[in-house]
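Priority: medium. Attachment 1 of 2:
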């Protein structure tokens, strides 16, 4: 998945960067290629063995420009994060839906900057919480 990374020049290293979608992950590198590799590793470390929901990428560049990390002195770079290398404790399963319902789910997930899996996880948690309160 392509995630936006805000890249700036740094006095100590050649580049430093921050993710819009992973605010806790700061990345440095002496070159853009090293920065990309380090970005992948930072996401892997963040979610290793975790049950945290992995957010979908923010793709709206106008939305990115409004974020606090964009101080106007850097550039947005979209980096490929190979999510198959992220080892979380999440378990995959197969689900069948009508095509029209899946399209609605995809649209709602994109609007909330979630992956489809995160959307279904939140929906399941909501239902379980509702069931507990009854």
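Attachment 2 of 2:
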């Amino acid at each position: 998945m392509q995630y936006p990374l805000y890249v700036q020049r740094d006095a100590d290293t050649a580049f430093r960067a921050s993710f819009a979608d992973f605010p806790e992950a700061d990345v440095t590198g002496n070159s853009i290629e090293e920065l990309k590799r380090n970005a992948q590793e930072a996401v892997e470390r963040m979610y290793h063995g975790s049950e945290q929901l992995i957010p979908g990428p923010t793709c709206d560049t106008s939305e990115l420009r409004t974020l606090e990390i964009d101080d106007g002195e850097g550039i947005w770079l979209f980096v490929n994060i190979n999510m198959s290398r992220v080892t979380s404790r999440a378990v995959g399963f197969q689900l069948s839906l009508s095509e029209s319902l899946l399209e609605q789910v995809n649209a709602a997930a994109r609007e909330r900057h979630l992956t489809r899996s995160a959307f279904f996880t939140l929906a399941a948690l909501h239902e379980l919480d509702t069931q507990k309160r009854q």
